[in-house]
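Narrative summary of target 7.
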Amino acid sequence: MSGPENEGEYGAGALRPYVITKGRSRPSRNTVGVETLLIAADPPCELPVSATREERALVRMCERLLSLVEASAHLALPVSLVKVLASDLVDSGHLSARSGVPQAVQPDPQLLQEVLDGLRRLR
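Modeled conformation, tokenized:
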């Protein structure tokens, strides 16, 4: 059934994720994770005419450093879909991906014990 009464059902927001990602469900890079920090290329690269609205929005919002999971929330899209988009944009040179904050080095167990003993003495 077509007509104005059904236009809302099939509006722009009804696109399936596989349409946005051009049929792919996995990113081209295994290094893009939820903690990956994204930033637009400097100087900015012109997106092709065929770029999707979501790709354009992602590059625009990454003018400042932004994590992949934050971008996903701002775009209101699944993280898995944004991973594919971000990976494509990194491959094309429109975005740069940076690893998140490195894990802290595990402290020396003896040092932790000394701190604990010192705190207990304060009581």
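Helices lie at 17-20, 53-61, 68-75, 79-91, 109-121.
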